[in-house]
Amino acid sequence: MVELRCNKNMTYKFTIIINKERGGYVARCVDLGVVSQGKTIEDAQKNLREAVELYLEDNPKSKKGLPSVSPLITTFDLNCA
Questions:
Q1: Is 11 left (phi over 0), alpha (psi -120 to 50) or beta?
Q2: What are 16-27's pLDDT values in tens digits?
Q3: Domain residues for 9?
Q4: What's 25's domain CATH number?
Q5: pLDDT at residue 63 is higher than 80
Q6: Into how many domains does the chain fold?
């Protein structure tokens, strides 16, 4: 979860998924579909934060459609015979 503070003391919380890839990590903002990468998890998060900030600057109308509640993300096990 990444928290982004914008003007007028608005705070948006975004759900992110980070996957290990060859040579680093790929971070995806589930709410906006914005993707970035980095050599470490921390770099990927930082780069994604910057990418989301730029995305919202270029698409100010997209702030209106942001969900007020983050999605529930969970896992399940599947045994294959």
A1: beta
A2: 999 999 999 999
A3: 2-64
A4: 3.30.160
A5: no
A6: 1
